[in-house]
Amino acid sequence: MTEFFFLMKHELSLVLILVFLLILKIRTKPIVNSSLINVMNVVFFLNFILGWFLNKDGSLFGGMFLNSGLLAFEKNILNLGTFIICLQASSWLKDHKHVPEFYMLLISTLIGMFFMLSSGNLLMFYLGLELSTIPLAAMCNFDMEKANSSEAAMKMIMSSAFSSGILLFGISLFYGMTGTFSLLGSGYNFDGSPLQVLSFLMLFSGFAFKLSVVPFHFWTADVYEGSPVSVTSYLSVISKGAMVFVFSSVMYTTFKGIATVWYDAMVVLSILTMVVGNLFALRQNNMKRFLAFSSIAQVGYILIGISGSSESGMAASIYFILIYIFSNLGAFGVISLISSETGRESIDDYKGLYKTNPMLGWVLALSLFSLAGIPPTAGFFGKIFLLTAGAAKGNYLLITIASLNMIVSLYYYLRVIRAVFMDSNENAIEPIKSQTSIKLAIILCVAGILVTGFANGLYEYILSLSHGM
Amino acid sequence: MMLTILILLPLLTALILAMSNAKASRTVALAGSGIQLLFSLLLLQNYLTERAAGNTALFLFESSSAWFPALNINFHIGVDGISIAMILLTASVVFAGVLVSWKIEKMTKEFFLLLIILSAGAYGFFISLDLFLLFFFLEVAVIPKYLLIGIWGSGKKEYSANKLALMLMGGSALVLVGMIGMYYNSGNSFDLVHLSTFHIPFYIQKIFFPFLFIGFGVFTAIFPFHTWVPDGHSSAPTAASMFLAGISMKLGGYGCLRVATYLMPEAAQYYSGYIVLVAAIAIIYGAFATMMQTDLKYINAYSSVSHCGFVLLGIGMLTKTAITGAVLQMVSHGLMTALFFAAIGMLYERTHTRAVKELGGLMKMMPFISTVFFIAGLCSLGLPGFSGFVAEMTIFVGSWQRSGMFYHIATILACMSIVVTAVYILRATGQSVMGPVNNPKFLTLTDAHWNEKLAAGVLIVGIVAIGVMPFWLNDLVSPGAEAIYNQLSRFALLK
Question: Residue B397 falls within a domain, yes or no?
Fold first, then answer.
């Protein structure tokens, strides 16, 4: 019985918070937003810290639910990201009418993701997936008075329903072939027969939808643009991160037998994703859309790392996600602050930002450089390790295309840098005073961007965790 | 230990700069770069004592500590004579660069901060013995340039800054591919010393040599990837131009030599004809393109394309003398072009024009600056007594040693470009500082201040020291050049 608590520790602590919020909501006394936000920030922080202790490896419910050092680490990363997002959301939430609901939805999706990560069975995986997407659609609609927020939610729910359908088709084929839903040790030999390939491709496209891999990316930009900034950052960082974790482990454990199709699908889609994501990002003017396409391109790099199909590929993609959380949240932190204080989101509005808000200018620059993979930021290490892992199979053409894509991406990141540092603007964004919580979030991100790359122990640690895979 | 300090000093300076205010920043930057210059001289002295004591190891002050052990990436540093020469060059140029930017007013602190970070990248690059580390520092030295040009530049600065950043990043992307290729074909190692003993199969070398050579070549303005040079140099503020032409272009030359040629000797021989060809084109084309320029900065920028062609020519010829000459040319051109840009900057600051036609007769009002300008010009055209002569002469002698009609013709053509150089240099310097005063406004202008005199002084001392006593630099760099040459003859392809 005690094992149950240890193994499901991450999920149980989130459920506890959820129950606490429900009770709070039932009380008749109105809730003071600012105090609730502060309490929640502390709670998320504690949740993140507690995640590091008392972890146990093992499985529950006959292999339905698994836990291991690697999974616990992945959950901790997601906890950290959620904590930072909550800090950043404070200035947006403080005047919102439905603060407890926001947290409830947020926690529900996070629980869903944790179950998805821990699933040892496709049914459990599907349950977790749905639990994580449906509340997310409600979160997209959280700026209820805005029409494009509702549009975003609608697009989100439609596309995820569609992708779930494909995924379920793949799962049923999988079940038909193997006679089991188990992802591990089904004893079934994958040798690449047509039915297996079909099932694999169906599952793969289901994942691709969630990861917004080209050509399954069409929902991404509109959803990102319409959602409130904090939800966008949650979508682009946490939701994507969890998907990458599950994707890589499913690809590595279950489908490794279908070697050729597996590899070809990875390579073709990673090239498509990088190229299309980068080319579309070139033309964007809205910061959120711009980051949406840049994050599509980033997934392309992750696929390269995974395609190396080695422990170092797995470790590199997890390491990259950790770095990506810091860099993307650094950028989103600035955008979220500016958007909630001034409501301005276009790149042109950022002209002359450095003159009025030098600190924000530096933070944005640092985050974008990290996304572009410029040293000494952590993004450099993340990208190089991904490419190095991806080259393990000797596909240097793929690496060449990826590194040329990095130049294209640099072009559009520099466009923002140029607006911030070089262009002058009479109507520049006023100096913004930020709350302590937002400052804290930004400091965390900047520290992460600067330190993660040099913290070589971290990479080694992730690698040692990936050994079991 | 000494090399670690060499990296830490600029980082410390940058840290203090980040915390200081705008007013104090220039003093901090000057102190930091001054200490760094003294420290580089100390490093030279230690190096010479060590060598005199009979230490014949290729790399001195070597130290290696694990960085990412799982990927076999080490923090491996060490220097040979070539690196020491490059470090000295960097230290002098950065010191002079800080001095000539003394009066900068717009975002002073950020300016010096970026300049110092840039220099940290260059120092790190020259002491790295691990390709990953080398690549890290190579990229560190790109983005500050973008900001320096884009924020403090003049003319179409955004365009130039973008072009420069993208082309240089393109170069480094190619380097990355070459580097990863070598990694997987040498038993997973980025280590330069290990790679030099490991014999990478020839067919692999043939694939990855172009990536590395062209990648680094972009930095050193290899034809046809030289187009960032004129725009970048002319738009950059004085100190950034000095750094760009003086050091940044040398990163490429050093990389071509140390990484591409040294680690893939057979491919270097296989491709040497092509290298000589593009180098010769760059030399001739650069020289003739300079003739057409009317803007002083463009003149120097295009002449840099031509002069860096000599570096590539020396590398491509693959003889010991030519390789030594290439290194000498890197140092010489670094000092000379930095001096040239410093002088142009000083003139521009006073006259607010860089067009040769609008200047004239400046010698009367500004004897010091005009003399500096003249010295830089004379060094550029290879007058004996200055460093340019020594370097170019060595390259020509070395190039002639390579047998074969094609190489002889290339050498002759390269020699002939000296005449063209003389034409444009004498015309530019003559028209701008000699003759009658064209513009009456110039009559009230004042000569150099202490900071400008000191900056020019440091660079001129270097130029003359090499020009009058070339042996010390020659002795310093030739063991390194010899090691590269030995590598080439060990895996001889031709013969």
Answer: yes
